[in-house]
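User: Can you predict the 3D structure for this chain?
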Amino acid sequence: MINQSNRREGSTISAYSGVLLVSSEELFILQRRENRPSISNPGQVSTFGGMSWPGESPIECALREVQEEVSLSLKPDDLQVLYTTSVAKQDALIYCSFFFVRQIDPSALLLLEGEGIELLTSEEFHRHLKITPLCRQACLCYLEIKKQRSQLA
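Assistant: Here is the predicted structure, written as structure tokens:
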């Protein structure tokens, strides 16, 4: 639920869900966005995701967006939480929820939105210059979770 007390006078509140897909080889599966000035982050590389519909939960939004963008049917239990944040843009406050899903076969994805799919190793990710800030944060959070899990094993 969105906390209305954080709302600035005259601003609108919306929500975004993003999903970081990771292959069984631990490659990041990312979307190369169309290079159109009418969309946010044109020509950059991002997680799959989008803005939620009214009354839609972050998980419902994430599931819908992945289905719409790469024809991937997931269940709510497939999603693991990465992080949440809020972003102020002009007169809007956007609450962002990020999830990750592992063991995805990139060859099974059918790109329906964007210019392409990029497969990146963690080393390639660190050197890539066109990754959106929120996608960069999602990948860094994933790498930190992976590091923590390996230390526990």
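Confidence is low (pLDDT under 50) at residues 1-8. The helical segments are 58-70, 122-127, 133-152.
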